[in-house]
Amino acid sequence: MLAAYFNSLHEAVNRRMALVLAGVAVLVAGTFWWIVQLKPLPDGTSMIFLGTNFLGPATLAVPSVFGAEIQQTGVLWLLLAIFAAAPLLTSALEKGWIELTLSKGTSRWKIFLGRFLGGVTLYFVTFLLATFPVALRLWWKTGVGPGPLAIALLIQTLSFAALLSVVALATLPQKGMALPVMAAVAVWFFSPSLARRQQSYYSFFTSHVSRGILEWIYRILPKCSELESMCFAYIRDGKIATWWPFWSTGIFAAAMLGLSLCLLQRKSF
User: Domain residue spans in the chain?
Assistant: First the structure.
């Protein structure tokens, strides 16, 4: 599995997917570095500006900068990384590649899991590259550490892992990359409206049965929208009000990935 993991990262570099994500990450980090300005005061403290917006002293401003980074890059990075990581899974089942892999005697699930973890790593490392340079600069200048931002990145990584598990399952029919990407994007797209289902859908679905089905769909699918809100809340308050979106999304990701590996192991090629 470890060999498959490193092979997937090597493939991501060779296919330029990792390089594109890294290039965009450097561009995003450079943009935030430029728009976040620190104005030192005679007493040794600093006032922070985000562009022309005055954010206040460091203890208040640094969490605002972290929140702005997550807000501006979170959705973008989820979608970019889905397009970048999906080929790592679809290529593993391409004709020619799969025959060569199976001939080596390595368990299918180990290869697929290694490539899945490679996709998650690709997301996390490039997202870290996009957001942490400014956080480290603020830590150096103000003493306010990047811990809340690191926790927020881990929460966002769980959201991405859940979407990538959808890609993994949708890859098994071997219909190319379009179906897996569309399935993951659809799950992400409906997440906000399902979180606000009373306002979004209850006016259209008035029966108890239809609303019960909506409730179960909400409970089963990953809570991408709520995990993003959890990131903002943790950066702002330093605590998490409810763990429901976190553990329910984790169970979804584990179940989808486990089902994918089980079906792959039993699939006839």
Answer: 2-266
